[in-house]
Design goal:
This is ABC-type transport auxiliary lipoprotein component domain-containing protein. The protein is α/β, with parallel strands linked by helices and 199 residues long. It has 3 helices and 8 strands. 28% of the residues are buried.
């Protein structure tokens, strides 16, 4: 009986080693301040923007994968401050607003509407782990009334300075700006410039 009691107590002690330990909170990232220069483009009329994404980008996981693997992973102790969908939507709206207003809803059916669908926002490693890049893939469609004015597939890539979560976040920040600027340039080529004041 004493032996059984001793074993039971030892089991409780070993199991209790983790009791009371609170895991460290995850490190939280965002896309930082939007301080990068934007392309010099003409002013345009207001547009409305809708933004959707694949379900995997609706939570705050920082996603990575190796090459073209079909098995994406998430860092265990790193998170985005908001979902990648929301972070990128905000960044694109911020940068597009340099050329003209970006609305959540159309004022009328004649207000051009930019429909954006995000399918990739992740850190992609080389097979040997020696390098990685932030990669963003999105599809944009521009409609006015019932007319499709154009569509654009945008791929934005940026090399990661370090092969860890922080490096992937830095690369995705740069790729986010690049994706927004590609959109801005496409809109400038697709939409008529806003009339000049007094013109």
């Amino acid at each position: 009986m004493k032996m059984r009691s001793a074993v039971f107590i030892l089991t409780l002690v070993l199991a209790g080693c983790g009791f009371g330990r609170v895991p460290a909170p995850p490190t939280v990232f965002d896309l930082g301040l939007d301080a990068a220069p934007v392309p010099a483009l003409p002013s345009r009329e207001p547009i409305a923007m809708t933004f959707q994404a694949v379900p995997s980008l609706s939570d705050t996981s920082v996603i990575w994968r190796v090459g073209d693997s079909a098995a994406p992973k998430a860092y265990a102790t790193y998170r985005w401050a908001s979902s990648p969908t929301e972070l990128l939507r905000q960044r694109i709206a911020e940068r597009l607003s340099r050329q003209g207003p970006v609305l959540n809803e159309r004022v009328s059916l004649q207000t051009p509407q930019l429909q954006v669908f995000l399918s990739q926002f992740e850190q992609v490693f080389a097979a040997d782990g020696s390098a990685s890049e932030g990669r963003i893939l999105l599809q944009a469609v521009l409609v006015q009334g019932r007319t499709v004015l154009g569509q654009k597939r945008i791929v934005a890539r940026a090399d990661a300075p370090t092969q860890d979560a922080a490096g992937g976040v830095a690369a995705l920040r740069q790729a986010s700006n690049d994706a927004a600027d590609q959109l801005a340039q496409w809109l400038a080529a697709t939409l008529k410039p806003a009339p000049k004041a007094g013109g």
